[in-house]
Design a protein that fits this description.
heterodimer; A: about 110 residues; mainly beta; 6-stranded mixed β-sheet; B: about 120 residues; 7-stranded mixed β-sheet; 4-stranded antiparallel β-sheet; about 0% helix; globular
Chain lengths: ~110, ~120
């Protein structure tokens, strides 16, 4: 079956530091890959996505590249801000099998200190 | 656009009572909605897929008689936790797929259920 493994948190960084949150996956088909962000007290919001190998998703300074050879979709940002403090979820959706359900990783709590 | 509203955002109930949680797509129609449960420091676990006009599809291990799902219209799905017990205390989240073909799921803000 499908699964997503992501870096366990919590992660604490200073403002303007470089961020990497690792995510790897296993899937039986050709998944689309997503990063969702959950700010305190809010629902999940789609941060970025990639639908095929070598695609790069990007948004708000974050980016992630769909690496089929390493089955990875690591999230990166060059210079984090306090407002980036949130929980980040890596997820996949195996649309090739007609399965629109999302499989989530365990989430990584990120705290940015001034 | 593409807003999903979940209500209530939090609820406290006594053991043995039932609680209803609503999930509404405010500006789009959603034939398909999903209900998730999130335990502390854990991932979202899909409970069931809610389809307008038909019975929900439950994931393995989820008691359909305990977690009743009704998707009566294209903009509303409800989850009723029946005869709630303290172990049902959790964060419940819904998401909805826009009928216009987008593969993006839009999430509600979640409902924190505490059973005392």
């Amino acid at each position: 079956g499908n699964s997503v493994t992501q870096m366990e948190g919590p992660v604490t960084l200073s403002e303007e530091a470089f961020l990497t949150i690792n995510c790897t996956y296993t899937a039986t088909g050709y998944p689309s890959l997503f990063w969702y962000v959950q700010y305190p007290g809010e629902g999940l919001q789609l941060l970025l996505k990639a639908t095929k190998a070598d695609d790069k998703g990007s948004n708000k300074g974050f980016e992630a590249t769909y690496r089929k050879e390493t089955t990875s979709f690591h999230l990166e940002k060059g210079s984090v801000q306090v407002s980036d403090s949130a929980v980040y979820f890596c997820a996949l959706s195996d649309l090739a099998l007609g399965n629109e359900k999302l499989t989530f990783g365990t989430g990584t709590r990120l705290t940015i200190i001034p | 656009g593409a807003v999903v509203s979940q209500h209530p955002s939090w609820v406290i109930c006594k053991s043995g009572t039932s609680v209803k949680i609503e999930c509404r797509s405010l500006d789009f129609q959603a034939t398909t909605m999903f209900w998730y449960r999130q335990f502390p420091k854990q991932s979202l676990m899909l409970m069931a897929t809610s389809n307008e006009g038909s019975k929900a599809t439950y994931e393995q291990g989820v008691e359909k008689d305990k977690f009743l799902i009704n998707h009566a219209s294209l903009t509303l799905s409800t989850l009723t936790v029946t005869s709630a017990h303290p172990e049902d205390s959790s964060f419940y989240i819904c998401s909805a797929l826009n009928d216009r073909g987008s593969t993006e799921a839009f999430f509600g803000q979640g409902t924190r259920l505490t059973v005392v």
